[in-house]
Write a structure and sequence with these properties.
The chain is 77% helix and 0% strand. The protein contains 10 helices and no strands.
């Protein structure tokens, strides 16, 4: 029960924005049981928020090994690698795509990584695939896509996307 209590306390710290304390609770829970997925993710998430990307990436990799069918571990691993090793990020997303071939989140993540790498054409393709598969209101992805279209000098497409976003998020 110790690992559960530590993780619960750590999650409360995390939600309050107290990442150092959340990391400490995650570390203690992880040391109690190195295969306990919630503790690994808490510890990794807290380190990520503290911009300790190298340490967070190691924990997210451990989370994939602990729970190979947990999608969040792959997506967070890819996200953290975006900052330190974009090619590794794409490798992780390809692993994700093999395990979960019909999940649209992989295309969104790939679009974001390609954008971060300044591979604009690849980013547009990935986001086009994502928006074709995902019918929800993902404003964050739409905003990034509008920026990508602007960079590509598709000013009308970018303006159309911005005009579609503004009624849903007027402060954007």
């Amino acid at each position: 029960k110790k690992k559960e209590a530590l993780t619960l306390a750590g999650n409360a710290f995390f939600k309050a924005g107290l990442y150092q304390q959340a990391a400490e609770m995650g570390r203690l829970a992880y040391e109690t049981d190195g295969g306990y997925f919630p503790a690994i993710m808490l510890y990794g998430d807290a380190l990520y928020e503290m911009k300790k990307y190298g340490d967070a990436s190691a924990l997210y990799e451990a989370a994939i090994h602990a729970e190979p069918n947990e999608k969040s571990a792959y997506l967070k691993t890819a996200d953290v690698y975006k900052y330190i090793n974009a090619e590794r990020s794409l490798e992780v997303l390809n692993q994700f795509k093999e395990k979960f071939p019909s999940d649209p989140d992989v295309n969104k993540a790939m679009g974001s990584i390609y954008y971060y790498q300044n591979k604009i054409d690849d980013a547009i393709k990935a986001y086009d695939t994502y928006f074709a598969e995902f019918k929800g209101e993902d404003l964050e992805a739409q905003e990034e896509y509008a920026i990508i279209l602007y960079i590509k000098k598709d000013y009308q497409g970018s303006l159309d996307k911005v005009n579609a976003i503004l009624p849903k998020d007027p402060k954007s």
